[in-house]
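Throughout our pipeline, every protein is held as a single compact record rather than as scattered files. Such a record has a labelled line for the sequence and another for the backbone structure tokens. This encoding replaces a full spatial description with a residue-level series of whole-number codes. For reference, a complete record is included directly beneath this paragraph.
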Amino acid sequence: MTMFRTALRSVGRQSRGFTSSSKAAAQESSSSSAAAQKASNTLQSLSEKAQQIGGPVVKRVEGLLGGYSEPLQYNLKVAGSVAKQVYIAEGLAPPTSVSSITSAYRTIWSRVTDAGYWGQLLTKGQWKQVGIYAVEAYGIFTIGEMIGRRSLVGYKLDTSKHGHHGAHH
């Protein structure tokens, strides 16, 4: 949800920037269009290669999904398109060096361990935003756990090898 709000703000900022008709804005727009086209071409070629390699697997999965295959494919394409638009609008890029990753984690760790930072959050009222981020992170973690377990609740354990047979010690 936060990602979409950020994307909408970015689009709003971009549309305000289009009111000026400077030559630099036109060049920036054409360079971002070229980058978007290049990303689209790269994704298309990767998609074609994946279809060649995983064709039989995809057909088998489609057969298992039955009537759900078409809506699932449509929704995945829509999600991919939205993700691509957000990626382009936000100017996102993967980290280019290990030092950028380590500096980000250092910053997070320094804030987490600084009592003054937490006091500042409480006085400025930003604790709500941090709480929402925490709930989002917990939700993503929980969904990952469910996917990993392949079950909504608990792990399937084979207790027949442990010799308990219902007896409690």
Notes: Residues 98-169 form one domain. Confidence is low (pLDDT under 50) at residues 11-22. Residues 23-65 form the longest helix (43 residues).
